[in-house]
């Protein structure tokens, strides 16, 4: 973990404890033989790799401006496999995008 400020580590630990209290998910320190693990870093933004198994490390980036309990919970949700509602495979059945209202070059798919 690259986040060394005590308050940052405390927020992350609190989020991990919340998962343990409410789910069967346990975040544990990485062991040398672990193939899948999370790297928590500051990598220019607030994001997380989407869940994968057998593929090595998954990055969670938590810049200073996104170190909050809610954001850590949110990014860990991506690590365990959750996507945003607007990214669901069936989203086009429920979301109507008005492309004419989007500034050219300012949309992301």
From TrEMBL:
Keyword Zinc: yes
UniProt-annotated binding residues for Zn(2+): 74, 78, 84
Cofactor note: Binds 1 zinc ion per subunit.
PROSITE patterns, A to Z: ASTACIN
Domain (Peptidase M12A) ranges: 1-109
EC category name: hydrolase
UniProt keyword list: Disulfide bond, Hydrolase, Metal-binding, Metalloprotease, Protease, Zinc
Xref: PANTHER family: DISCOIDIN, CUB, EGF, LAMININ , AND ZINC METALLOPROTEASE DOMAIN CONTAINING (PTHR10127), ZINC METALLOPROTEINASE NAS-1 (PTHR10127:SF798)
Signal peptide location: none
Active site: 75
Identification of the protein by name: Metalloendopeptidase
Source species of the chain: Litomosoides sigmodontis
GO MF terms, alphabetically ordered: metalloendopeptidase activity; zinc ion binding
GO BP annotations listed: proteolysis
Required co-factors: Zn(2+)
Enzyme Commission code: 3.4.24.-
Keyword match Disulfide bond: yes
Ranges that cross the membrane: none
């Amino acid at each position: 973990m690259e986040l060394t400020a005590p308050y940052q580590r405390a927020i992350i630990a609190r989020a991990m404890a919340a998962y343990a209290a409410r789910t069967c998910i346990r975040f544990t320190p990485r062991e040398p033989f672990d193939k899948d693990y999370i790297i928590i870093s500051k990598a220019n933004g607030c994001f997380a790799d989407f869940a994968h198994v057998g593929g090595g490390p998954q990055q969670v980036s938590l810049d200073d401006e996104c170190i909050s309990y809610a954001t850590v919970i949110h990014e860990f949700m991506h690590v365990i496999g959750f996507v945003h509602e607007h990214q669901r495979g069936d989203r086009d059945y429920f979301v109507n995008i008005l492309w004419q209202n989007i500034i050219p070059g300012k949309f992301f798919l």
